[in-house]
Amino acid sequence: MTITLRPGNTVMFTGDSITDGLRRQSGDGLGFGYPARVAGEWGRRHPDRPVTWLNTGNAGDKVMDLEARWRADVLDARPDVLSVLVGVNDAGWQTLHPEDGRVIPVEEFEAGYDRLLAPLAEAGTGLILVEPFLLPIHGVVEAGAVLVGEVERARWRADLDPKIQAVRRLARRYGALLLAADGMFAELAAKAEPEHWAADGVHPTSAGHAALAAAWLGLVA
Question: Of 11, 35, 158, 183, whose CB has the highest number of CB atoms within 10 Å?
Answer without folding.
Answer: 35
